Amino acid sequence: MMDHRSSGLLCHISSLPSPYGIGDLGPEAFLFVDLLHQAHQHYWQVLPLNPTDTALGNSPYSTYSAFAFNPLFISPDHLHKDGLLTSAELSACRVPSSAAVAFDEVYARKAQMLSLAYQALNDQSFLWRAFAGFCDSQAYWLDDHALFVVLKRRFGHVSWTDWPVGLRDRCPKDLKAAIADGADALRQEKFYQFLFYRQWTALQAYASLRGVGLIGDIPIYVNYDSVDVWREPGLFKLDENRRLTFVAGVPPDYFSRDGQRWGNPVYAWEHHIETGFAWWIKRLRHNLAFFNLVRIDHFRAFAQCWEIPASEPTAVRGSWCDVPGVGLFTAFQREFPDLPIIAEDLGIITPDVDALKERFGLPGMKVLLFAFHTEPAKSRDIPENYLPLSVVYTGTHDNNTIRGWYARDISLIEKKHMLAYCGREVPWQEINDVMIGLALRSPARLAVIPLQDVLGIGEEGRMNTPSTTDGNWLWRCLPGSFTPALASRLGAATVEAGR
User: Fold this and answer.
1) Which of 47, 93, 311, 437 could form a disulfide with 60 if both were Cys (CB 3.0 to 4.6 A apart)?
2) Residue 408 contacts by C-beta under 8 Å, 6 or more apart in sequence?
3) Residues catalogued as catalytic
4) CA distances from 104 to 53, 79, 438 (A)
5) How far is 427 from 417, CA to CA, in rounded Å?
């Protein structure tokens, strides 16, 4: 998949302009594809497209379904075009323009919009056949997803572990009764997933025609309170009452005295081996139906993972546990010979992680913002040390923007090393162009630039600050910011760099 030098932009769907409070799969998404084509970009990378929740900080990496899509991204304009919203209903979806996602307002307005679209379904018979086909082809995840959402609503959004025992333990008689009782509500939830699927596949086809591939993102872990754990608890380390025994995280390090206790269930890898890694294969196949490449988050946990007893309040008393990564990726390779995967191998990486990545020919990640620490010549993130089979980013969704980093985060020693590397003083106004140029000219086969860096935005464009819960996942591109002139300028730099 990465057999030639190429480049792309990182921009989550939520960050696109739109008059509805959040980016969506509507006209601005298609315009963004056009601008990528004009800028000679070959890829558009997004963050995970799974459902988000205000209670979980609206993080795309924290979701109740590893297979479902986020209904917030459904375009009101396309629903209007399909006859599912009237002009007055479309106007009611509008939210005052802002540089930040208005999550509370968006959840409320999109819920009302989707309900109206469902009510209009009976008048649009041309959609029925497509909807029925979607329900049949996606039943392997869709049926349980819809039931999970409906039951969560019925029981006041408590965890599935606190549902009546028959439903908690998925007794066939209780499931059958719940399905019969909620037939219309189940169909409604399935319809929302169909709307996303319909709009995404249209965008996917358009991007393909314009020569733009799509890069997705798979979080390695799932949430405990998720349809995935409820449906197949044997895949995770739980006790006889389906309660957590161990949770995921990372150990203490220079940056965190207590480490990070994420709280996700860890995998019962013995069970995955017994099933031939069927769940993982299904998950990867599902994602590859919608993306040309996928980035897998926290790749190091496929070699060893940090397991923390669920009773521990911090990550200090965890331990490293071996993971059958070779077996898993051998199974992947049988199903997907090209292995169109980017390994997120950031942080402290041990030789076993590099060996796993190299054995299966997986590109790892390099981040230019990490390149200028105490010994740049030895840095894995300095361009001279890149292997061609790698992906360079100026920064990721977890970093400050280039200009934000240069104005606020860069240390004196980093700045000294960076200026020595560049061979000149670099004004604040030029730093993003300088770093983008380094990424484009680097040996890495693929270069990915966050849209904020192309636009030259400061720290107000930061997408996420790890280990914080407020003010994340909010940034949006204002209408008209990514201009054709800017796209042409990026395109010239891309061509000059041989991409």
Assistant:
1) 47
2) 400, 459
3) 297, 344, 398
4) 10, 21, 39
5) 15
